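question for whoever is on the cluster today: can someone run the full assembly for these? two chains, 601 residues total. i dont have access anymore since they changed the login thing
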Amino acid sequence: MSIAKSESTISKDGEIPISFCLSVYTETAIKKAALKFADLCSVHLSKNENVVTATLSFSSEKSSETRDQVRNALINEVLDQELREKISSDTEPLRNLILAHAFSRTGLTGTE
Amino acid sequence: MTTKSDFKPGTDFLSTLNKGYTLLPSRFIRLDDNRYVVTNLVGEYVVLSRLELEQYVNHQIEPASLLYCDLKSKHFLFDEDSNVAIDLLALKYRSKAWRLSDFTGLHLFVVTLRCDHSCPYCQVSRQSEDKDAFDMTKETADAGLDFVFRSPSPEIKIEFQGGESLLNFNLIKYIVQEAERRNEKEGRKLDFVIATNLALLTEEILDFATQHEIYFSTSLDGPHWLHNTNRPRPGKDSYEKALEGIEKIRSRLGPDRVSALMTTTKESLPHVKDIIDEYAQLGFDGIFLRPLSPYGFAMRTQWYQAYDVSDWLDFYFRGLDYIIELNKNGHEFTEYYAAIILNKMFSATGTGYVDLQSPAGIGIAGIVFNYDGYVYASDEARMLAEMGDTTFQLGKLGRDSYEAIMTSDALLDTLESTMTECMPSCSDCGFQPFCGSDPLYHYATQRDPVGHKALSGFCKKNMAIFRRLITLMEDDLDARTVLLSWARP
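^ ran it for u. tokens below:
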């Protein structure tokens, strides 16, 4: 089960740690999600056994409301990235079949 | 001659009943508080209550029931009677996908960026009329035609865009004549469309269009006061010029040789009936009620922010209801976006509408050659480039090969990652067979071609329309008759 800490864990300097369970989310999904918010905060990642903790650091002018929004958006983004990975993997044969069919008469596929 | 003994007794066909059934692939989504839409792989659908849905999924539908027959005939299940459903489903899926291998059919030539109008919502950066630096050259046009005929598509449509395309009519003439010359050997079905505001239409242009069977596409935003507000030009007579041009084309080339497109602005929102009446009174067979796209000047001038999807949906549904009433009262008139969706739902081969396909139609259904030779995945990609973002610029005519452009990462990565069969929220959506991918929209609004569908205006718009169309067809027999008449492939 994923663990996303609530705002009660906000540290004195405004940092927000969010913990993700690796039995639910992959490291790749967490990193991709963290990267998306690089313009709003810094995300430091650490790992302890089966848990990755993403610690969000903000510049001082970001309001607490903004920090909450970013935290919530990042949690959703990790879920989205996780699903993208899984669905992409599950549907790879179908995707390849459809695209191969699309390009089948262009002379651009390797089999021609 | 057959006799009674040539047939098995009817009881023989009951032997497979009560032996259970196997589910075929399907998705479902809530239609309203009481009903669900269930779709199969090829977009055939049934509307079920919650109880019926649960019974279907749990293999509890009574074999002798009408519902069972309906589900079986539409390939939601099969039983021991026959497994031909699997073959039929595969055949139907192949039919729906046939268009893909034809590859790029629509080729847009942006012959100039110059324009005589100053529309605030214009989706391209335009330059004033006297700047020849923004015209496509003959060399670029030749390279573009090389590209066109490299496509395997048996049907080629060349569309001339701008700015105002008639400001570079000499190049249009050259491209048409050169394309026809090359096509003598190629043997494709070749069509030409000039997208123009018609303000610069002359007899010479009409003569040429007559000779080469060219179609025209123009803009008509509604009654004159709305059109002229949206589309300022010197003389403040854009509406009058458009009507004059429409009349000339109809009388010279025929009534079906000119079509019109409207753009919805904030000023349009309270006046959907007036806009529809304008089109009907001018003799058009229908109207495409379009939203404003988030590109080009529309973003810079904040027009895109003027209304949100909910506002536009209200506008659209008032318009759709009004059009259905017109039809019920004997006036045949089509809303074209609904017609495109209905074609996807009911025709064997789906639709070629570029913005509602999966994989997305960018590059592989339509492609754009800009005046400067740069090649874009779509017109929206060109508009993004005008805003400084060249993410979807695929290459350059005369510099990059067809292979390099059509196998570029910008194209292939986007196609692969944005198929509705493979994106979160889309892959298990009950409306997936009806929908399509719009990576440019999601990139423009979320900086991500995949996008979060919960935040997507494209998704919100389409799901609302799907629900409305299906609800109308379920609950209003007369509306159903009207809507099905629009599902013409």
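summary bc i know u wont read the tokens: Chain A touches chain B through 20 residues (CB under 8 Å). The first strand of chain A starts at residue 16 and ends at 21.
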